[in-house]
Design brief:
disordered N terminus, single chain, 5 domains, 712 residues, six-stranded antiparallel beta sheet, Alpha-Beta Plaits, alpha+beta
Length: 712
């Protein structure tokens, strides 16, 4: 996208920044591949199973047939009026281990297409990505895919969207011709357009490029009329203007397609409703109509609210409109690392970002160089001179900035809200095969941590062992493979283990810590008294809350930050089991200072002493990660799978039918779910599937805590 040509509001209105999100194997990558073909970006469609798709470009993705990293790509489409629309697409992963890729993509996108399988319907990860889209108020369309499959049911999936997804109000726009629960391959023939009340038939022979537009078959007309009535009634409920137009229509005024399309756009932009389309990306049906809907209903950067931040020093609230004339404001939402170095993905919200320029990172209080700018096409790059409001670009040259950092104009600073990521739940030990590779391992781990906010590592100083932590077994396995393949590093890894947390059992009051040391010269003197209590902290907040209840003048004000910092460091370094402390409130109630011998160091030591004593008296509680599990199985394996889950300390929360299959919803400690993929294959002859995601932390059995503390 050329910055000069995109600088007017009329051309900004022709940009769509969208994400394609769904449960694993709903057809996101295949749909993206079809979009690229019909928009002329590629001339030959790839296949997920053959590892030849454009957006799954990593070797690991091609081997496994799944998306691991969110890939950005740009294509162009003409809307119904013939206006060119630029669509920046991010194809996101569906596997729960890579949910951070969805999180950071939705944070910067203007709209989303949510894909559902017509057979499986609303699945576990469908709900997760829907909640993520709600969190960022992202307008979205729904596309019910795989209508060609045996067992495909449009109406059932439509009802599931309405009933199971929070804040969902689906409105049907297309229905299938010839698909149904008892249907078979080849019976799905096309679509009925409920707005124009026309039948659309697609030719498989020319890859869906030829579409025959005809009258609706007589045998389908009653059903089409019922669905159309449902569409206009839903629109009337959601949009006052359309309700008035519909009432006028009942009195004889015409109800035009333009009125319906305008109403659908209004309810989509406000998030009141979501238009629902259908088709089969694999069989080339419905993708062009999906592109029309993206152009017609999803927002341009101009349709989204001004981005809100605050002044990094004054704390006052600031806004930036999507206007190239406003001061620069952008957000780093992703970093990739390859042989050429770091490439930072930046969403430009306002102003113009130029290559070879200096920008300000207010979070780090550092100036950064933007050496080169690129438009990204999966693993290909196209160098550009400038990016304007509404653009998503790759930047080379940033040294300090990480995911979630703001870039802005130094003379007009603004700090945007950071992106929150879930905590890691699983870890394993790692060490280089050769001691000569020790430094290389540290550099590699640092590079991977910059890339992936849900991956971290730490060195256990007592054992000298390095622990890597992530979101699941697959996540860590893929990162290990990347070290071997991309960084040419041979490593040994231990068995996966659970990332526990620790909290406290009871409230303790008046615990005093002190630092009194006399040396040859001036000594160290400080006394600190604290209370400690269990208090659940809000998600995204610090796991430890510090409260200063000192009376004025008891301790000089300049020493209080040192006390707070010391208490937080103690919590982070771990409790009695060595795992990080969470959900703790520490209140500073009293203290004592000396005119000569008190300083920051003395108060840091005294605070650490008080914290350690309070922790021992409060008593430890070990917290283990609890996973939310969804198992989908044929009926005949239901009993065996339920018995196996119960043996793993799982709690069955729900069980219901989904088409011809049974669904088990459960929650279980992560520790008992290791190796479950092998067990479920064995128990169901490979016919059942499952998904698992972190749900919460809950107290572990007392025996587990005693084992860690070495108590018989």
């Amino acid at each position: 996208m050329d910055s000069d040509s995109s600088s007017s509001p009329s051309l900004l209105s022709q940009i769509r920044n969208i994400g394609i999100i769904a449960h694993i194997d709903a057809g996101k990558t295949t749909t993206t591949e079809r979009i690229l073909y019909y928009t002329g970006e590629i001339h030959r469609m790839g296949d997920v199973d053959k590892g030849t798709t454009t957006t799954d470009y990593l070797e690991e993705e091609r081997q496994r047939g799944i998306t691991i990293v969110a890939a950005a790509i740009t294509c162009r489409w003409k809307d119904r009026q013939g206006q060119p629309i630029t669509i920046n697409i991010i194809d996101t992963p569906g596997h729960v281990d890579f949910t951070a890729e969805v999180e950071r993509s939705l944070r910067v996108l203007d709209g989303a297409v949510v894909i559902f399988s017509a057979v499986e319907g609303v699945e576990a990860q469908s709900e997760t990505v829907w909640r993520q889209a709600n969190k960022y108020s992202v307008p979205r369309l729904c596309f019910i895919n795989k209508m060609d499959r045996i067992g495909a049911e449009f109406e059932r999936v439509f009802e599931e969207i309405s009933e199971r997804l929070p804040e969902s109000r689906p409105i049907p726009v297309f229905i299938p011709i010839g698909a149904g629960p008892e249907g078979s391959m080849g019976e799905f023939q096309g679509l009925i357009d409920l707005i124009g009340m026309r039948a659309l038939y697609y030719k498989m022979e020319d890859l869906g490029s030829s579409i025959t537009d005809t009258e609706i078959p007589d045998d389908m007309l009653p059903e089409a009329e019922l669905w159309r009535e449902r569409m206009v009634n839903s629109l009337s409920d959601a949009d006052e203007t359309f309700a008035e137009q519909y009432l006028a229509h009942l009195e004889g005024e015409p109800l035009t397609e333009a009125m319906i399309n305008q109403a659908l756009r209004r309810v989509t932009l406000t998030g009141k409703s979501q238009p629902v389309l259908c088709g089969s990306s694999f069989k080339y049906v419905g993708v062009q109509r999906l592109l029309d809907a993206v152009a017609e209903y999803l927002p341009s950067p101009l349709d989204r609210p001004a981005v809100v931040g605050h002044h990094p020093k004054k704390g006052t609230e600031l806004t930036r409109n999507p206007d190239p004339q406003e001061p620069l404001c952008g957000l780093v939402f992703k970093i990739t690392n390859d042989a050429h170095g770091d490439l930072s993905f930046v969403r430009v919200y306002s102003g113009i970002l130029k290559s070879s320029s200096r920008v300000y990172n207010p979070g780090k209080d550092k100036k950064e160089n933007c050496s080169r700018l690129y438009h990204i096409r999966a693993d290909e790059r196209e160098q550009i001179d400038a990016a304007i409001a509404g653009d998503i670009v790759g930047v080379v040259g940033l040294k300090e900035s990480v995911t979630g950092d703001t870039l802005c104009d130094a003379s007009n600073p603004i700090l945007l809200e950071r992106i929150e990521f879930p905590e890691t739940v699983i870890s394993m030990s790692i060490e280089p095969v050769s001691s000569a590779d020790k430094n290389k391992l540290a550099q590699t781990l640092a590079a991977l941590t910059r890339e992936d906010p849900t991956f971290n590592y730490k060195l256990n100083e007592e054992t000298g062992q390095t622990l890597i932590s992530g979101m699941g077994e697959l996540h860590l396995e893929i990162l290990k493979n990347r070290m071997t393949r991309d960084y040419n590093l041979k490593v040994h890894v231990g068995k996966p283990r659970v990332s526990y947390r620790e909290t406290i059992k009871k409230v303790v009051h008046g615990i005093q810590g002190q630092c009194i040391r006399q040396t040859g010269g001036s000594g160290l003197f400080a006394k600190v008294t604290v209370d400690m209590a269990h208090e659940v902290q809000p998600k995204g907040q610090s796991p430890v809350r510090f409260v200063n209840n000192l009376k004025s003048g008891v301790i000089p004000q300049e020493f209080i930050p040192a006390v707070e910092q010391s208490l937080r460091e103690c919590a982070k370094s771990g409790g009695q089991t060595g795992y990080p402390l969470v959900d703790v409130k520490v209140t500073l109630t009293n203290g004592q200072a000396h005119d000569v011998e008190s300083n920051e160091l003395a108060f840091r030591f005294a605070a650490a002493d008080a914290f350690d004593k309070a922790l021992r008296e409060a008593g430890p509680v070990l917290l283990e990660p609890i996973m939310k599990i969804e198992v989908v199985t044929p009926e005949e394996y239901l009993g065996d799978l339920m018995s196996d889950l119960l043996a793993r300390r799982a709690e069955i929360t729900n069980s219901f039918d989904r088409g011809r299959l049974r669904v088990i919803e459960a929650k279980s400690p992560l520790e008992s779910m290791f190796g479950y993929s092998t067990a479920i294959r064995s128990l169901s002859q490979g016919r059942a599937s499952y998904s698992m995601e972190p749900l919460e932390y809950a107290p572990a059995p007392e025996a587990k805590l005693n084992q860690m503390l070495g108590i018989e």
